[in-house]
Amino acid sequence: MSITSHWTERYADALMNTFGPPKLVLTRGKGAHVWDADGREYVDLLGGIAVNALGHAHPRLTAAVTEQLGTLGHISNFFASAPQIELAERLGTLLVEPVETRETKVFFTNSGAEANEAAFKLTRRTGRTKIVAAAGSFHGRTMGALALTSKLAYREPFEPLPGDVVFVPYGDVAALEAAVDDRTAAVLVEPIQGEAGVVVPPVDYLPSAQRIAHEHGALLWLDEVQTGVGRTGTWFAHQHPDLVSDRVVPDIVTLAKGLAGGIPIGACIATGGSGKLFDPGNHGTTFGGNPVAAAAALAVIDVIEDDGLLEHVSRLGARIRQLLAADPRVTEVRGAGLLIGLDLAEPKAAEVAAAAQDAGYIVNAPTPERIRLAPPLVLTDADSDAFLAAWPAILDAAGVGKEIA
Fold it and tell me: Which one of 26, 92, 270, 306 has the fewest CB atoms closer than 10 angstroms to its CB?
């Protein structure tokens, strides 16, 4: 029995079956590389699903966490810490341009689902209850976040869920116009839909969503859990010049995943009057914004800035998308920066993910036809070139194109 098989059996005996059998048992990582329990090396092109922004074992992230843990690890939210306050200030500056006077307020959580739960509750403080969300959306699996997630397979086993949520086709401005009314508390959309397979809306979609929401006195809430923190080559996807036709300043933004590079954290950021909707006691958290997580997030932001990773992500992502699209068995490539989705000519995404793993690359198959890449922002040119060189053989091994030929 291999070491991996040994651990997989213990996993099945000890953990709830919410994820199915693990594909690998990983033991260590460095940069964009990980090693399994049997010592085999892989290039991690999923990054913990857009979480490991700085890859694995980044020295500055490790140092920041170690130093903070050796000084002050956890305090309750009866008290404040310098990293918590500094992080809230930094996020506000990154979200709203310095010349902008629009005030920002932050509530820290431990995950994206919790950030969305906080935002959901915040919208209720408007005195309205209706949320207009998008088909194909994914906002989390807690009960409130699940109510905002459109996939029936996720929702139906746990109904009834919190109500007054309307789903409309993603990217369809006319559908938003028809659904949003004066009872709407918020319009909720992802700038790019990640779990749906990296679906990019038309460039007028987010500006139109902002206009429609505000015409009816509703809030614009952008879920940037997967797209934020430099993932697309800008700090937030709604700031990307290729993704929007006009400036967007959301009333609420939710973040998590890459924010602290693998240390659990989430953030609900509100701008303008939205940040004043919560009163003491309206919401809370035990671990959210703890000093260690906040110090980790500050380190991630510093490294992205100091190492020019936004420019790196933009350049490398564009090259990867271009070369992936060169294979005729790939019918479409979408995304921005290092959030990349592609459609296959056949519904063999699971086979492609398995073949990639056999070849030493970790990718994701979010739908039967689609592959998603969300590698660390520190992915090197050499690693991306090696993957692109291996890509045709991966498709061959998965049998993509045989039926077409």
Answer: 306
Establish how many alpha carbons lie within 13 A of residue 164's alpha carbon, considering only the half-sphere containing its beta carbon. Answer: 14
Q: Give the position of tokens 């859990």.
A: 225
Q: Is 323 helix (H, G, I), strand (E, B) or coil?
A: helix
Q: Return all residues near 372 (Cβ < 8 A) that are at least 6 apart.
A: 46, 194, 197, 198, 339, 340, 341, 363, 364, 365, 366
Nearest to 137 by CA among 157, 165, 158, 118: 165
CA distance 148 to 163: 9
3-class SS shares of the chain: helix, strand, coil, % to 5: 40, 20, 45
Residue-wise DSSP of 33-101: EEEETT--EEEESSHHHHT-TT-BS-HHHHHHHHHHHTT-----TTS--HHHHHHHHHHHHHHS-TT--
* CB half-sphere exposure, 191, CA atoms < 13 A: 33
pLDDT, tens digit, for every residue of 236-285? 999 999 999 999 999 999 999 999 999 999 999 999 999 999 999 999 99
Q: Is the pLDDT of residue 5 over 60?
A: yes
d(CA 296, CA 87): 10
As beta bridge partners, residue 198 has none
pLDDT at 47 over 50: yes
Residue type, position 6, single letter: H
Q: Is 247 helix (H, G, I), strand (E, B) or coil?
A: coil
| Positions marked active-site | 138, 223, 257
